[in-house]
Amino acid sequence: MADDVVTAETGHAGGGGGDVFDVTIIGGGPTGLFAAFYAGMRQMKTKIIDSLPQLGGQLAALYPEKYIYDVGGFPRILAKDLVATMSEQALQYEPTVCLDEKVTGLTPDGDGIVTLTTDKGVHRSRTVVIAAGVGAFLPRKMDVPRVDELVGKGIQYFVTETAHLAGKRIVIVGGGDSAFDWALGLHEKAASCMLIHRSDKFRAHEDTILKVLQSPVDVRRFHELKAVHGEDRLEGVTIFDNRTGEEFYVECDSLLLNIGFLTNLGPIKEWGLEIDKNAVRVNSTMQTNLPGVYAAGDICTYVGKLKLIATGVGEAGTAANFAKTFIDPAAKAFPGHSSDMK
Ligand SMILES: Cc1cc2nc3c(=O)[nH]c(=O)nc-3n(C[C@H](O)[C@H](O)[C@H](O)COP(=O)(O)OP(=O)(O)OC[C@H]3O[C@@H](n4cnc5c(N)ncnc54)[C@H](O)[C@@H]3O)c2cc1C
């Protein structure tokens, strides 16, 4: 984890405890953080549970050092800085934060309480906002001998900080956004940077592809990884041209494997929720088919759903405010204007 990635300030040992919370938010990504902020502003006793060791979801885990250009109010902001500001906003009402804790079960008890089971214990809550993103996400593994042995010794799937890559000879594998973003972000600080991809069809953003192709990054189309070399640390890789079979040895210190992620809703599929193409179906108030259970962000779906930070935070506000009316039918869903608050 990067030193400057926000970790919970109000974390506790996990495992639930006896208190019943007004709302428990599964997932501490941007959606969950904004849901926690709104729930706090609505005076709800709030808890966030996340299976990762830090807040920030995909932004902190997958691309902390990338710029984001499409969140309101920031012409551009590093993902880790957005996590920091969103965490500050979310934590001001002092929610309970349980990190490194995976929710495995969700059961509405019929007495107005939802029981959440985790790998550390049991939590009870009047409402739940599922902001679990794409579920548990794992990098797609590279099926090349000895790669696993050298992970952490020059080979990495996740890049959470970049300082150690300065001055290094870097080889990046992949043709999507992560591979191109890292090529663009790292080539200036690296001693050299090569990007290999198995075809000439790149899936990254057009603008990024163009910038990388115009940069000193050595882009090799139709090339794949054949072998990794080094005993205690990575010393080089063998790549090959998949059209001709010709092999090349490339000396390098760092190999970034950005060949995609496998996502799985895992236990969430077993909770009795209406699932549509790996997402939880919600209505216009972000309520699922289970009473008191809402979903927002990448995990939810409805007609016209866009998986973006901006839409996720909007849905989080809706979910938290309607969760308020669920536990207090006299409360209005509309929270009033925050600018009117003293
Ligand atoms: C490389 C990359 C670049 C991107 N760039 C942009 C961009 O420029 N602009 C933009 O708008 N979007 C961008 N996105 C998409 C954006 O990151 C997502 O839309 C956003 O993260 C969704 O937020 P979320 O809070 O809904 O889910 P997530 O960020 O996925 O957070 C969900 C959290 O839930 C946790 N969780 C899941 N299951 C459980 C469980 N069972 N128990 C406990 N915790 C659980 C996960 O650990 C995770 O921390 C990008 C995505 C990637 C991968």
TrEMBL record:
<keyword id="KW-0521">NADP</keyword>
<comment type="subunit">
    <text>Homodimer.</text>
</comment>
<feature type="domain" description="FAD/NAD(P)-binding">
    <location>
        <begin position="21"/>
        <end position="314"/>
    </location>
</feature>
<feature type="binding site">
    <location>
        <position position="339"/>
    </location>
    <ligand>
        <name>FAD</name>
    </ligand>
</feature>
<dbReference type="InterPro" id="IPR050097">
    <property type="entry name" value="Ferredoxin-NADP_redctase_2"/>
</dbReference>
<feature type="binding site">
    <location>
        <position position="31"/>
    </location>
    <ligand>
        <name>FAD</name>
    </ligand>
</feature>
<dbReference type="InterPro" id="IPR023753">
    <property type="entry name" value="FAD/NAD-binding_dom"/>
</dbReference>
<dbReference type="GO" id="GO:0050660">
    <property type="term" value="F:flavin adenine dinucleotide binding"/>
</dbReference>
<keyword id="KW-0274">FAD</keyword>
<feature type="binding site">
    <location>
        <position position="63"/>
    </location>
    <ligand>
        <name>FAD</name>
    </ligand>
</feature>
<dbReference type="InterPro" id="IPR022890">
    <property type="entry name" value="Fd--NADP_Rdtase_type_2"/>
</dbReference>
<feature type="binding site">
    <location>
        <position position="137"/>
    </location>
    <ligand>
        <name>FAD</name>
    </ligand>
</feature>
<dbReference type="GO" id="GO:0050661">
    <property type="term" value="F:NADP binding"/>
</dbReference>
<protein>
    <recommendedName>
        <fullName>Ferredoxin--NADP reductase</fullName>
        <ecNumber>1.18.1.2</ecNumber>
    </recommendedName>
</protein>
<dbReference type="Pfam" id="PF07992">
    <property type="entry name" value="Pyr_redox_2"/>
</dbReference>
<feature type="binding site">
    <location>
        <position position="58"/>
    </location>
    <ligand>
        <name>FAD</name>
    </ligand>
</feature>
<keyword id="KW-0285">Flavoprotein</keyword>
<dbReference type="GO" id="GO:0004324">
    <property type="term" value="F:ferredoxin-NADP+ reductase activity"/>
</dbReference>
<keyword id="KW-0560">Oxidoreductase</keyword>
<feature type="binding site">
    <location>
        <position position="50"/>
    </location>
    <ligand>
        <name>FAD</name>
    </ligand>
</feature>
<dbReference type="InterPro" id="IPR036188">
    <property type="entry name" value="FAD/NAD-bd_sf"/>
</dbReference>
<comment type="similarity">
    <text>Belongs to the ferredoxin--NADP reductase type 2 family.</text>
</comment>
<feature type="binding site">
    <location>
        <position position="298"/>
    </location>
    <ligand>
        <name>FAD</name>
    </ligand>
</feature>
<feature type="binding site">
    <location>
        <position position="103"/>
    </location>
    <ligand>
        <name>FAD</name>
    </ligand>
</feature>
